[in-house]
Amino acid sequence: xxxxxxxxxxxxVALLLTLAACGGGDSGSEGAAEGDxxxxxxxxPSDGEVSLTFFSWVPGIEGVVDIWNEQNPDVQVEVQTxxxxxxxxxxxxxxxxxxxxxxxxxxxxxxxxxxFRVQDGLTDIGGCEGVMDSQEQFVDWTWSxxxxxxxxxxxxxxxxxxxxxxxxxxxxxxxxxxxxxxxWEEYAAAAEQVRxxxxxxxxxxxxxxxxxxxxxxxxxxxxxGNEGDTWQVGLDSEESVQVADYWNGLIQDDLVSTLPPxxxxxxxxxNSGDAWTWISAVWGANSIMSGAPDTEGSWRVAPMxxxxxxxxxxxxxxxxxxxxxxxxxxxxxxxxxxxxxTSEEAHEALIEAANLYPATTEGQQLPALSEGVPxxxxxxxxxxxxxxxxxxxxxxxxxxxxxxxxxxxxxGFSAAASGNGSLAEALTSTQESTxxxxxxxxxxxxx
Amino acid sequence: MSATPSSTAYxxxxxxxxxxxxxxxxxxxxxxxxxxxxxxAATKERGDLTTTNxxxxxxxxLVENLQGVFSYGDAILPRWLxxxxxxxxxxxxxxxxxxxxxxxxxxxxxxxxxxxxxNVVLGGxxxxxxxxxxxxxxxxxxxxxxxTFWSVFLPSIVSPFGVYLARIYAASSxxxxxxxxxxxxxxxxVRTFFSVSVRLMVPALVTVxxxxxxxxxxxFFLPLIMLRDERLFPVTLGLYNWNTVVNQVPELRLYVLTGxxxxxxxxxxxxxxxxxxxRSGLGTGSVK
Lengths: 447, 288
Hints:
The complex is a heterodimer of chains A (447) and B (288).
Chain A: H1 4-41, E1 50-55, H2 61-71, E2 75-80, H3 89-99, E3 105-109, H4 113-118, H5 140-147, E4 156-169, H6 170-176, H7 184-196, H8 210-218, E5 224-227, E6 230-233, H9 238-252, H10 264-271, E7 277-281, H11 284-291, E8 299-302, E9 315-323, H12 330-342, H13 344-354, H14 381-390, H15 402-417, H16 423-440
Helix pairs in contact in A: 2-13, 8-9, 15-16
Chain B: H1 3-11, H2 14-42, H3 48-51, H4 62-108, H5 114-126, H6 129-142, H7 149-156, H8 160-173, H9 176-184, H10 189-200, H11 202-218, H12 221-226, H13 235-244, H14 252-287
Helix pairs in contact in B: 2-14, 4-7, 4-8, 4-11, 4-14, 5-8, 8-11, 9-10, 11-14, 13-14
């Protein structure tokens, strides 16, 4: 009998843990509820020394935060890190919100903000000192995306952006005597000429849907809209279908390749001169440098082709710094987020550490971003992106179920690329699946 | 009729030997090619990674890569490796001791509820570790212990399969007469276990240790959910993190590859040292 007791003991410990888990769940959510009431009402500074936790996957973020910690002995920020958002961090954030222990601040990409908002995971920092006044420092579209359709609310501070432009092989275009296209019409014509040279003008991404979303964004469309709690779904809107038909034509005529992006195969197409342009975001400059090292000096950057005479650009990527629900120090957290994303020293450190392209107009003018880049034949490429950033339409809105949208569109696009259906059909079917996904989460969908 | 006596001879015929060797050769190649690829990639410069033959050397750059990967991010990689060794090495040692004691007790002592406990443990074998990660996170969150060393270590010291194996093995390899003799000589139950039974159970315990070591080393999901402090990461999670931000910091692509090569070395070492025991451990259960 001596032997039985440890085993029974172990069993009862397990039982106790289970009970504790059930009982504790309630107290956790109560705590969170109290916290959010205080945060929404006002945003007062806390007394005494404050310590904050900040989750970010930006490489080298610790060095940037150290600058703040030195200057603010009373508000110390501890960095937490992990994989990028969609590789596990967003799921972790939701788990932590559920368990009542999220960090005070976290990095969230623009396209994921609505999901956190709908799940009630964010603190409105619109009432915090300096937040509303900072609006004019930011590129227009970024501000409308952190307000999420509410006039007096601000759910995050924009951090970085990805304005889009066209990377092109200047040497190959000149050699073949083809004009660098400035409109989509010219781009399609140039695609045929490039094809005669046994190459493709570009590679269309059927799996990373953010590129296509950037195209629709440029055309002035929007996949979502929201008024109050009601959401509209516009995947099959006029602009969206127009862009889809355009690329569908190029794919049908075998004028663009459809290699999976971010693979060795794809790198090789760009490195070996099989693909002549890439319409991508500002951070794409590094992707080409690392993926196509043999092409040094041959690439240039031009504004992305347009639908009419008016200049407009899309955006691909970018993230924000948000304050999570339940943070006990929203005032200090907001001050830190503002410093991180508007101050010159923080911008310089972020550019240095991880090539982040700032969301403020001033940040985009920093010396580090106005120099010529040797890989691009000393062209001042960031000027092109700064100008592009100013022409990004402000109508675009992300939805609360972007993971599902990306998956569904990607499935449809991949099928279309292998000859089953069209890009537009993929959008129509995703329109339906998205509407039912929203409804099944209890999110009202309007017309 | 004449086929029956020749069947043993058939098994040793040169043809079948050749076929067997061929199959083994193909599988060896199949398993070693990725490691070879990894080794080659880790010796290359970043620019050569996509542009040169992936299965053969270009410029030898292994030493520079190793220096780079070990010093990147305030030399965080050695820390991750140490963490992995602690989680897997110490964790599986504790797990083996616990599983060995538990299995031995289930095999050698008759008490009410013994079969119930054993069946519950056996059911635990069927539950994948991944499915337990989230409930564990919520439990640890209740006691404020997420993002600590213990949040990964404690769940790692439980091995239902180890209990199962230890029970089966103890039942067949530790004779009751020997335990009686030990008791008559005045040894207590604990002393009997550690100085008599453990020695007889070594092959099984080594097997449990190896299984658990590999399981903890490769358990990626639990640390992913539990940990937010980079200094607590095991090497698998750390490398995964790097891999997700390759777009922002292109040199990380090479560091992920070099780091992966470094991270499989401890596994290879453990296997080479303990495989002799493991083979006998696996075989013994089946012959009984």
